[in-house]
Design brief:
heterodimer; A: 289 residues; mainly alpha; 2 domains; two-stranded antiparallel ribbon; B: mainly alpha; MetI-like fold; 2 strands; globular
């Protein structure tokens, strides 16, 4: 009797895992099934490097280059804002702040990482955008700059929380050795602790990068949405994610336009997959140490 | 010598400044949302349906929609996630299968949420003809949450000391008995934390439900799995981008944001409290 129960239990966990993989691979299959037919009509280089995006014209054009540039701009902008603030806060919490402050701030940062992105989008759209428009006398406050600020603010908790873990995991003996040799606190932080926690810190930045590039709601609400190659940081752009979200509602299922949006999703998936692989590489190496 | 001290002082000041800016920015963000949002909060706001083209009334259908989406997707995720985590941590044979599952989980944990939305639209809405409905949205959200939950279950099960296994097996318990009667109860608080984190994540997602479940406006509550639903995060987005009366819609959007934030932050705060109390009580 016991033997059967044993076998049954093993079989159940086995089935559950198989089901999980099946679901996970169905996701990839689903994307490619809907998106790949587009490439019968449009070549891959045309799709990636083409400038015009006119999916509903009589002679449709599918060039995703403006969206790729759009995603690139807001992501870089978010990192420019998110990295110094996130890393600075992480170093401050782990090295400068006292234990009591640390015990309060650390969970608060973890909480902030869970705030839904649509709330950041709301804040950007109705508070920051009008402010920037009035300050700088722009036509619209919905542009690369505003989107970068909001996305940057959003990835600060992610970068701060993970880098702080990496910094805290640096052995105490290394710290003490540096200080005993007469280094000042800052010398100890910048020449000893940060190099020792390097991999974890890079991992946290890549995680933030992945989050920023895949974020939909913030850019949909705040980046403005005009498909153009931006000339300044106060031009509005249209990243990959917001194109998909904005246009999906208007498509005919199975039509060219529909397929082209799935093709954009494949592009996005490949991008984030590459970033994940690199992140895994950094995190896995750190664990082995 | 003096130079180094100046440098040290500057470095200290600079790092404190960065941390200060972060705290200031986040405080402005939270204060702004809560101060504008709390103005419209009332019993009526929480428990009535929207009226007059979204300009008046409350958000009850959205609250109910988010509740059902979360409950259904989480109850799909829990058994699948725990069983998969048990397989990965305790059985894990053949080895290649273990690696494949692990790669699949890691890949999907980092996939943007809009991609899950597209998948849900292609498979649940169109292929399986479930249409835009509560069940399509819940299944999509379940797939989004699954990799996250499996990872936290694995962590939870790995946190059970190896001695526990050995003691149980030495007393003559079978592997199944050890897992169900010793390992899972010991890991339960950590698994619970994982569930709570997933609830917070699922309740706040907008992109996956945009094309699978959400509708801008419905007066009545969802009556079955095939109904379209309103949901809090989508409601915020819709109020900001659709409709024709921004001056009355924006305050309602802030009110909805406060409700959503309180829900998500409340749930996550519970997870933090549970985790720290476990750490304090733990005797091994």
């Amino acid at each position: 009797m016991h033997k059967y129960k044993e076998k049954a239990f093993t079989a159940i966990t086995y089935t559950a895992s198989l089901f999980t993989i099946m679901v996970l691979f169905a996701l990839i299959y689903g994307l490619f099934r809907e998106g790949l037919p587009l490439f019968n009509k449009v070549s891959l280089t045309e799709f990636i490097f083409g400038i015009g995006w006119y999916p509903t014209n009589a002679e449709p054009e599918f060039g995703a280059w403006t969206f790729i540039i759009g995603s690139f701009c807001v992501t870089i902008g978010a990192l420019i804002i998110g990295i110094p603030l996130g890393l600075g806060s992480a170093i401050f919490i782990s090295e400068i702040a006292g234990n009591r402050l640390k015990e309060i701030v650390k969970p608060v940062i973890e909480l902030l990482a869970g705030i839904p992105s649509v709330v950041y989008g709301l804040f950007g759209m109705s508070t920051i955008a009008p402010l920037i428009r009035n300050w700088l006398n722009l036509d619209t406050g919905l542009n690369i700059f505003t989107a970068s600020v909001i996305l940057g603010l959003m990835i600060v908790p992610i970068i701060a929380s993970m880098s702080e873990d990496a910094l805290t995991n640096v052995p105490k003996s290394i710290r003490e050795a540096a200080l005993a040799l007469g280094s000042t606190k800052m010398e100890c932080i910048f020449r000893v602790i940060i190099p020792a926690a390097q991999r974890g810190i890079i991992g946290s930045i890549l995680l933030g990068l992945g989050r920023a590039i895949g974020e939909t709601m913030v850019v949909l609400m705040v980046a403005g949405g005009s498909a153009q190659i931006p000339k300044s940081i106060f031009d509005s752009v249209r990243p990959l994610t917001s194109t998909i979200a904005a246009e999906m509602g208007e498509t005919v299922i199975g039509g060219l336009h529909y397929q082209s949006l799935y093709a954009l999703a494949i592009l996005l998936f490949v991008l984030t997959f590459a970033i994940n692989l690199i992140t895994e590489f950094f995190i896995a190496k750190r664990d082995k140490k | 010598m003096k130079n180094r001290k100046v440098l040290n002082f500057c470095g200290n000041g600079f790092l404190s400044l960065l941390a200060g800016i972060t705290i200031l920015a986040i405080s402005i963000f939270l204060v702004r949302i809560f101060s504008l949002g709390s103005k419209v909060l009332s019993r009526e706001f929480l428990f009535t349906a929207p009226r007059n083209c979204m300009q008046e009334g409350g958000i009850f259908p959205a609250l109910a929609g988010t509740f059902w989406l979360t409950v259904i997707s989480i109850s799909i995720v829990i058994p699948l996630g725990i069983l998969t985590a048990i397989f990965l941590t305790n059985y894990g044979k053949p080895k290649w299968l273990l690696n494949v599952v692990q790669i699949a989980i890691d890949t999907l944990a980092g996939t943007p949420s809009i991609i899950f939305g597209l998948f849900g639209m292609a498979v649940f809405v169109n292929l399986l003809a479930m249409n835009v409905s509560l069940i399509s949205g819940a299944l999509t959200l379940a797939i989004l949450a699954l990799p996250l939950f499996i990872n936290s279950c694995i962590e939870a099960i790995k946190s059970v000391p190896f001695d526990f296994y050995e003691a149980s097996l030495a007393l003559g318990a079978t592997k199944r008995q050890t897992i169900t009667k010793i390992v899972l109860p010991t890991a339960l608080p950590n698994i619970l934390t994982g569930i709570i984190v997933c609830i917070g994540r699922v309740a706040g997602e907008t992109a996956p439900i945009m094309f699978t479940a959400a509708t801008f406006y419905t007066r009545h509550l969802p009556e079955g799995l095939k109904d379209e639903v309103m949901a809090l995060p989508y409601h915020i987005y819709a109020l900001m981008t659709e409709g024709t009366h921004p001056e009355t819609q924006v305050p309602i959007a802030y009110g909805t944001a406060v409700v959503l934030l309180l829900l998500v932050l409340g749930v996550s705060a519970a997870a933090v409290v549970i985790r720290s109390s476990i750490r304090r009580k733990r005797k091994w």
